[in-house]
Amino acid sequence: MAEQNTLCMVEAINLALHRAMTDDPDVVVLGEDVGPNGGVFRATLGLHERFGFRRVMDTPLAETLITGIAVGMAAQGLRPVAEIQFMGFIYPGMEQLVSHASRLRSRTRGRLSCPMVIRTPHGAGIHAPEHHGESTEAMLAHVPGLRVVIPSSPRRAYGLLLAAIADPDPVIFLEPSRLYRSVRQPVTDDGQPLPLDTCFTLREGSDLTLVSWGAALKETLEAAARLAEEGIDCEVIDVATLKPLDAETILASVSKTGRCVVVHEAARSYGPGAEIAALVQEQLFHALQAPVQRVTGFDCVIPYARQEMAYLPDVESICRAALRTLEQAS
Amino acid sequence: MPLTVQIPFTRYLDDQGQPQGDLPGWVDDPPLLLELYRQMNLVRLFDQKCVALQRTGQIGTYASTLGQEAVGTALGRAMTDADVLIPYYRDTATQLQRGVQMQDILLYWGGDERGSAWSAPAAVEDFPICVPIATQACHACGVAAAFRIRQQPRVAVTTCGDGATSKGDFLESLNLAGVWQLPVVFVVNNNQWAISVPRCLQSAAPTLAHKALAAGIPGEQVDGNDVLAVYDRVRTAIERARAGKGPTLIECVTYRLGDHTTSDDASRYRSAEELSEAWKREPLGRLQRFLHQQGLWDEAQEQRLHRELGEQINAAVEAFRALAEPEPSAPFDHLYQQLPAGYAAQRDQWLERAGRLAGGEHG
Fold it and tell me: How high does pLDDT run on average in chain B?
């Protein structure tokens, strides 16, 4: 029987990397400080010792290059897993993601492909310096040909990362840094991937649907628990794969509850919440009991550490949005 | 502080096709010389045909290779089937040498993705031509790193223009190639013009090959209009890389005799005098004169060659014209290996709109 340990998310990610590298010799890890240092968050700890410098590569400090060489390696049939140290430093690699990784398969009509993973810490709330707390997943989710995945627990981080590495197309794997060490959970090292392109229903309910992903699910689940004390029965959906979106699960839930609140840390305008709200009203206009609500980050520059917590959706804001949907006359 | 580092420069044939000093031993190979000459002529005639097809609306915007036939021809010839080409967008000559068909190149510039879906055995792992400047240099390092990880004796060869050497992607790639001692060869086609910006406004470096030095790798210049020099130096660099001795940057000094693309008019920014001077150094006449001197070529052979190549090109154009339209669903068929379930509705909408437009309806 596979060993089960109680792990935090960064340990679960590390476990998945060990598992993937053990099971598939084509999996290689690259990035800044991923070698002997084990990554600044220790996600790659022990890989260098175990798999050697050929498969665990410290790169020069150049994000365009890191992203671009992953494209070249993937086109050769390797499965590179590149770490971008913080999401705020992913932007130099955007050209490689948008103009190459996402469309190499399409441009060559399937002759070449790009089975690569970019891992990067996502989101604010860890009192890090500026540029270390970005949640700009909408920029990536807008790009045809990419997958954008974000886990919300150690167990899902393990299973979704295995799935991302095995996927034949490029995957951006966003790791909520606020959850890296804050939650522990038993994780079985069974090598079993979780499904991509699929939402997870974390809590079933009949009164309204709360939709979220990543670290914001912590507050979303807390809000659902508080609302339950008031007799309000929330369904909570973890989107998990933002691109391509599993609209079916969200629509099935909202058609049941008639109410929907989307919670995300990303800025409000043109954020993923707008896409989800649009889908819901396109498909379920007559089933809706109330307008779809959004609880999001703000359209301001994400503040430095002193004020960053006010930027993040809090339990009270989520509860109020939920109550607004219930106040609407049906 | 003066820049005292001297960059080697190689030229075997001068503008008149006269040997400069002793030629390397491999030059004593008439079939090879004739093949290089034949191929450069094919590239030039095919290029003329492409421009004509663009002017008559049969393909879209096209980037002419006029004047740069020697670089790509020599480069493609120096690579082996095991090697991988990561080209830029002015690389018809190299691609043809790799076995990519003229029909594929017409398809690409004709606006059809199938033009990069070739199956030529030597080129099957080659990248499609790269439009975003210098981004392909990173891919070449990734391909070369894959060879190193798998311990394969293969070499990645990437090309770019002079303008690309100003980009971070290029410099980051040189830097990595040096640190990791990757089996990669960077070939810069310095054709003196990045659209309208001349070489002197691109960099204050005395040569573009100097850029290799900061990365700790060898850099050299060759006369890019001397096919023998390019072939000799590129082949040496490829074999050096294959032997595990690391990367090389080769700056091929040549000249873009045409416009940047068919959408450009170079007479707006460069003088007729400069252009006519550049024509005196072009690569085909130079090799032709050398072949004449060696008694390997005459006017009758020249005429026969042009006739044969013309027929070959016309056959490719006919094959291009005869090809059926792409599958309507192709943009969705190759987006992901398997189209995610959530795309089904969009694919249907696409097929409906595409079908309507194909049927001649508008609005």
Answer: 96
Q: What share of chain A is helix, strand, coil (3-state, %, to 5)?
A: 40, 20, 40
pLDDT of B2 reads: 57
Q: Are residues B167 and B106 in the same domain?
A: yes
Evaluate whether residue A170 is within a structural domain.
yes
The interface predicted TM-score (ipTM) is 0.96
For B174, name the nearest residue in chain A, comparing CA atoms only.
A65
**The two three-digit tokens of residue B211, written as one number:** 């850029």
Average pLDDT over residues A112-118: 98
SS3 assignment, position A3: coil
Q: Which residues pair with A149 in a beta bridge?
A: A173, A241
> Does one domain contain both B228 and B363?
no
Residues A221 and A289 placed together within one structural domain of the fold? yes
Mark yes or no for CB contact A28/B149 under 8 Å.
yes
The structural domain count of chain A equals 2
B345: containing domain: 330-363
In percent, the amount of chain A with pLDDT more than 90 equals 96
Smallest Cβ distance to B117: which of A55, A108, A245? A108
Same structural domain, A180 and A220:
no
- Decide if B89 is inside a domain: yes
Cβ–Cβ of B173/A96 closer than 8 Å?
no
Residue A329 has pLDDT above 60, yes or no: no
The residue of chain A with its CA nearest to that of B331 is A106
Residue A93 forms part of a structural domain: yes
What torsion, rounded to 10 degrees, do the Cα atoms B178, B181, B182, B186 define? 40
Residues A76 and A175 grouped into a single domain: yes
Judge if A165 and A72 occupy the same domain: yes
A9 and A157 part of one domain = yes
Q: Please judge whether B141 and A69 are an interchain contact, meaning their C-beta atoms are less than 8 angstroms apart.
A: yes
Q: Is the pLDDT of residue A177 over 90?
A: yes
**pLDDT tens figures, A11-48:** 999 999 999 999 999 999 999 999 999 999 999 999 99
Q: What is the pLDDT of residue B363?
A: 45
> Looking at this protein, which amino acid is placed at residue A93?
G
Range of the domain at A241: 200-327
Check B117 against A71: CB less than 8 A apart. no
Q: Is residue A90 part of a domain?
A: yes
Residues B297 and B340 in one domain: no
Tens of pLDDT, residues A250-300:
999 999 999 999 999 999 999 999 999 999 999 999 999 999 999 999 999
Q: For the residues of B314-340, what is the DSSP string, one character each?
A: HHHHHHHHHSPPPPTTHHHHTTSSS--
B2 domain-assigned: no
Same structural domain for residues A27 and A128? yes
d(CA B7, CA A203): 68
Give the pLDDT band of residue A82 (cuts 50, 70, 90): very high
Q: Both B180 and B163 in a single domain? A: yes
Report the distance separating Cα A263 and Cα A279, nearest Å: 15
CATH of the domain at A130: 3.40.50.970
Is B292 assigned a catalytic role?
A: no
Q: Which residues of A touch B109 (CB under 8 A)?
A: none
CB pairs under 8 A between A and B: 142
B65 near B259, Cβ under 8 Å? no
Contact between A72 and B116 using a beta-carbon 8 Å cutoff: no
pLDDT at position A266 is 97
Does A95 contact B336 at a Cβ distance shorter than 8 Å?
no
Q: Assign B362 a pLDDT band (cuts: 50, 70, 90).
A: low
Dist CA A304 CA A249 (whole Å): 36
Q: Scanning every residue of chain B, which has its alpha carbon at the shortest distance from the alpha carbon of A77?
A: B146
Task: Using alpha carbons, select from A295, A274, A283, A143 the residue that is nearest to residue A210.
Answer: A295
The reply to whether B345 touches chain A by the CB within 8 Å rule is no
Candidate list A48, A132, A264, A286, residue with the active-site label: A132
Name the closest residue on chain B to residue A69, using Cα atoms. B142
Active-site residue B235, yes or no? no
**B residues 16-55 closer than 8 Å to A (CB):** none
